[in-house]
Amino acid sequence: MTNVAPASLPTLIAAAADTIAAHADELTALDQAIGDGDHGLNMKRGFEAVRAEADAFAAKPLPEALKAVGMKLVMTVGGASGPLYGTLLMTLGKEWPATQDRVSVAEALRKAVDAVAARGKSQAGQKTMLDVLYPVQAALVEGKNLPEIAAIADAAAEATIPMKAIRGRASFLGDRSIGHMDAGARSSALLVRAVVETLGDV
Amino acid sequence: MSNVGIVIVSHSPLVAEGTADMVRQMVGDEVPLAWCGGNGEGGLGTSVGAIMEAIDKAWSEAGVAILVDLGGAETNSEMAVEMIGEPRASRIVICNAPIVEGAVMAATEASGGASLQDVVATAHELAPA
Q1: Chain B: residue nearest A41 by CA?
Q2: Is the preceding peptide bond at B87 cis, omega within 30 degrees of 0?
Q3: pLDDT one-digit tens code per residue, A154-189
Q4: Domains assigned to chain B
Q5: Closest-CA residue in chain B for A122?
Q6: What is the ipTM of this complex?
């Protein structure tokens, strides 16, 4: 497990904000198919707000920085994905282990993903970001390496295509939600890839 | 004021304000009332910060009932209530009811001095079974 030093946080934030900006139109298009079409813009607004204060976040100890980034997303995203991604990071910060071995980090991530599930009143298999986050957490538990984790995230997002939405706006569509990738699953996979590629470069 | 307050949270500022207008016409100034809508940049959406401000504005010691439109408004309202924290959080309830009808019925109930529990129950009667 790569030890994430606070100093690398601006790089991580830049990588996350870059991938969201680069894929904002795609995320919006996915969301227009089965949601309300605001995911790309909302995520871009939130991550640009985080980018603007990257140095201030990096000055904090990592757990505090994670909480602060999460709070910034909550306050700036402007859709349900704000509290969902915000809860993920705030819980991860709260649960961040003193020693960052793989098992401890995986356990912190599990609590963070569980908190997202509670916030969204959802669970795996309902065509949401959880369908990416849980497989990524499991991959970490299994000791997969960073490129494998990125590939698992991408495959998990693809696997939401045949799923039927049960939570969120997409659930109004019922069977018509089948055949489209979930926008939140896609943004989660993009962020996972951005993070592991950045850590892989350390 | 000791009557339960009402907060209206819509993705659209126009829907939120229009709903608040209808509530005002029904109950006048008998009920603390606030609304918010939009993402802060003029687009559709809901903002946790704006919801927290609306709760402050409509705050009553008797509690506050929140009416929301779609999923994101509910999730963001839950986040706002959590961030406000205790002791106020347990006196704030997000209603499972259609936003316009729910706001009008909840406010009418609140204007008579009903408890938060009764105000919320009145709104919930409107929810599809």
Answers
A1: B43
A2: yes
A3: 999 999 999 988 876 667 777 888 899 999 999 999
A4: 5-124 (3.40.50.510)
A5: B75
A6: 0.78
